Amino acid sequence: MKRLGKFARIGAIVFAALGILTLLADRLFKRWLLHKALATAAPELIHSGEAASIGIIGGADGPTAIFITSIPTQWWMQPVVIAGLFAALAAACLAVWLLLRRRNDGR
After folding, report:
1. When you count CB atoms within 10 A of the terminal residue's CB, does the N or C end of the chain come out lower?
2. What does the alpha-carbon distance between residue 25 and residue 90 come to, in Å, rounded to a whole number?
3. What distance in Å separates the CA atoms of residue 85 and residue 77, rounded to the nearest whole number?
4. Is the pLDDT of residue 94 over 80?
5. Measured between alpha carbons, how far is 20 from 37 in angstroms, rounded to an integer?
6. Domain assignment of residue 49, yes or no
7. Residue 24 pLDDT > 60, yes or no?
8. H-only helix segments in the chain
9. pTM of the model
10. Is the pLDDT of residue 20 over 70?
11. 8-38 in b/e burial notation, b at 16+ Cβ within 10 A?
């Protein structure tokens, strides 16, 4: 049991760190690599695979409607989803560790 608690604690730390690093790497990749390096080296490679538009319809005395359209990206490729998965795994490991610690302290 003591060994399982140690693995759960290490797992919580590792998964939390992976979640944070996933978000940081995404920001770094998008800002530096795509916008700086590729824009100067090969500007023809940069194109947006997503299309979006915003339309505002309304008048001075009537209701106003705002239409926003876009092509959604794959949900499982979003870094926020991956970081959330790591956070859920970290929470599960932390819960196991705390339960094992409470059980060992009670004896």
Report:
1. C
2. 19
3. 12
4. yes
5. 24
6. no
7. yes
8. 2-28, 38-41, 79-106
9. 0.51
10. yes
11. bbebbeebbebbeebeeeeeeeeeeeeeeee
Asked whether residue 18 is domain-assigned, the answer is yes
Q: Which residues contact 13 (CB under 8 A, 6 or more apart)?
A: 90
Q: Is 57 inside any structural domain?
A: no
Query: Considering only CA atoms, which of 73, 77, 72, 71 is closest in space to residue 22?
Result: 77
**More confident: 33 or 12:** 12
CA distance 30 to 39: 12
Give me the pLDDT at residue 42, please: 60
The predicted pLDDT at position 86 comes to 85
- How many folded domains does the chain comprise? 1
pLDDT at 40 over 80: no
Q: Which residue has the tokens 């005395």?
A: 61
For 86, half-sphere exposure in the C-beta direction (CA atoms, 13 angstrom radius) is 17
- Say if 17 falls within a structural domain: yes
Contacts of 88 (CB under 8 A, 6+ apart): none
Is-contact 11 93, C-beta < 8 A? Answer: yes
